[in-house]
Amino acid sequence: MHKVRGVGGLFFKCNNPEKLATWYKEHMGFELDAPFCASFKPQNAQSDDMTVWGAFKNDSDYFAPTRQRFMFNFIVDDVQAMLDQVTQAGARQVGKVETEDYGDFGWFIDPEGFKVELWCPKEPQSAS
């Protein structure tokens, strides 16, 4: 059975992502990676594992097709294998697996109707 390695992120909708992120920067010491995003690397994490805190505008469609205001991102070793596993257990896959420079991503809707993002980080490429 495939297992989740960790929480890759918590994404949520809010009225003003940049203003909220600045508040967290100023009052909680967040080091922002983008105007609305911060990441945290656990001490004993594998390769590029990290947890991302991401604020999205209320009208963002990144959470579609759900109307939820938040979404979990879980780190896995194999996005497609995990999607196969959860869909066999009743979840519904959303879209196709997407590959970015920093990893593979896939999404599903869980039995309660929450959209969940799966992420398999890519090892950094060494310069030749």
Describe this structure as you would to a colleague:
This protein is α+β, with helices and mostly antiparallel strands and 128 residues long. The chain has 2 helices and 8 strands, in the order E-H-E-E-E-E-H-E-E-E. It has helices at residues 17-28, 79-88; strands spanning 6-14, 32-34, 37-40, 51-57, 70-75, 92-100, 103-109, 115-121. It has an 8-stranded mixed β-sheet with strand order 2-3-4-1-5-8-7-6. Strand 2 (32-34) and strand 3 (37-40) form a beta hairpin. The radius of gyration is 15 Å and the shape is globular. The protein starts with 5 loop residues before the first strand and ends in a 7-residue tail after the last strand.
Task: Summarize the topology.
Blueprint: E1 6-14, H1 17-28, E2 32-34, E3 37-40, E4 51-57, E5 70-75, H2 79-88, E6 92-100, E7 103-109, E8 115-121
Parallel strand pairs: 1-4, 5-8
Antiparallel strand pairs: 1-5, 2-3, 3-4, 6-7, 7-8
Main sheet record: 8 strands, mixed
Distance between the termini: 37 Å
Output mean pLDDT: 86
Instruction: Report the count of strand segments.
Output: 8
**Unreliable stretches covering 5 or more consecutive residues:** none
Number of helices: 2
Proportion of residues in extended strands: 35-45%
**Helical amount:** 10-25%
Structural class: alpha+beta
Query: How are helices and strands ordered from N to C?
Result: EHEEEEHEEE
The rough form would be described as globular
Q: What's the Cα radius of gyration?
A: 15 Å
